[in-house]
Amino acid sequence: MVPDRGEVLELLGTINDIDMNKDIVSLNFVDDLILSDDKISLTVTISNPALHARRKLQDAVTNGLKEKFPNTEIALTIKALPAEAKKTRRRVLPEVKNVIAIASGKGGVGKSTVTANLAGGLIKRGYTVGIIDADIYGPSMPTMFDVVGERPYMVDVDGKSLIQPVKTKYGIDLLSIGFFTEQDNAVVWRGPMASKALTQMITDAHWGDLDYVLIDLPPGTGDIHLSLVQTAPLDAAVIVSTPQEVALADARKGINMFKLDSINVPIAGIVENMSWFTPEELPDNKYFIFGRDGAKNLALGTDVPFLGHLPLIQSIREAGDAGCPAVFQENSLLLSYIDDMVDKLIESVKECKESKKAQHA
Whole-angstrom Cα distance, residue 36 to residue 33? Predict the structure, then answer.
């Protein structure tokens, strides 16, 4: 009986290249996969040519396939990644210390607002920060940082032309698809074209030495998300949701997507946005319009850190529209919530990286 190709790739997607810290399927390290009656033939590339690394990978692939397909012969060839190819793969955001995806399963939950304010909170703590506005169909970062009319320019870096991100007045480096399209025109692109645009903002831009890059993803779990995972060396993801059940159902899908063996990106935490409504003239009043503690309970139920609540207040909307995120407004009712959230994010990302490093030790 011929083994199922999907099942073979699913299993191989659980095996990581230790040096690259990603699975061999996402890295396109699986070649010449031939399935026949009672036999699986394949070639797997390895980035570390050392004998112990080759043996470890060989055992993982062979034993994994034999356990899944016990009566099947495994013909495995392991080849070393060429030096030039290895150098190229490590050029993706090579000087960025922490790469974090900000995601939501559902649109309209305030993901971009959360991204902008988290970035602002990090900047205020003295970190260097960049934002990739990957919401291809609804880019909002240029408006939120008052740089709608700006345009990136090309710079020469080691003989290669790269896109220089726009520097906002707060010191945040920013790239958005909104810089390359007319503001009032719809972006009518198929998935592959949108994915290519995102890839270029990651690989063909001069991000330089940054402490954090936050990637503001579009809602959903589609092509763009898969392209991101295959392109960017993600250290962690943050899920944004409102407390209402219809949003939480999609947030669960987002969590499960990042937890897939073939993706395997740790969740740094969940942010609950629009937790309650507080009128500006009644700052001590809370009206739980969308329900109460829904995202907090989701975090507890999925064993994911809870980063905090953000209330629904008029000033946060006004701040975004005015190009000055609320985190930069000293009298904002949100400051204490954002500050606490940023502190938790910093610690959680550190823990995510340490845990992942320990897994591959």
Answer: 10
**Model confidence at 360, in pLDDT bands (50, 70, 90)?**
low
Question: 103 is written with which tokens?
Answer: 């995601």
Sequence-separated (6 or more) residues with CB below 8 Å from residue 147 = 166, 168, 174, 323
Confidence of residue 88 (pLDDT cuts 50, 70, 90): very low
- Tally of CB atoms within 10 A around 108: 11
pLDDT at 87: 46
Q: Which amino acid makes up residue 83?
A: A
Lowest-pLDDT range of 29-38, 117-126, 187-196, 197-206? 187-196
Mean pLDDT of the chain: 85
Q: How many CA atoms lie within 13 A of 126 on its CB side?
A: 0
Distance CA 171, CA 167 (A): 6
As a whole number of angstroms, the distance between CA 164 and CA 174 comes to: 9
Residue position matching structure tokens 């345009």:
151
Contact in structure between 262 and 25 (CB atoms under 8 Å): yes
Report if pTM > 0.70. yes
- Residues 6+ positions from 342 with CB-CB distance below 8 Å: 118, 121, 122, 125
Q: Which residue has the higher pLDDT, 227 or 63?
A: 63
Residue 93 CB partners (closer than 8 Å, separation 6+): 99, 202, 207, 213, 232, 233
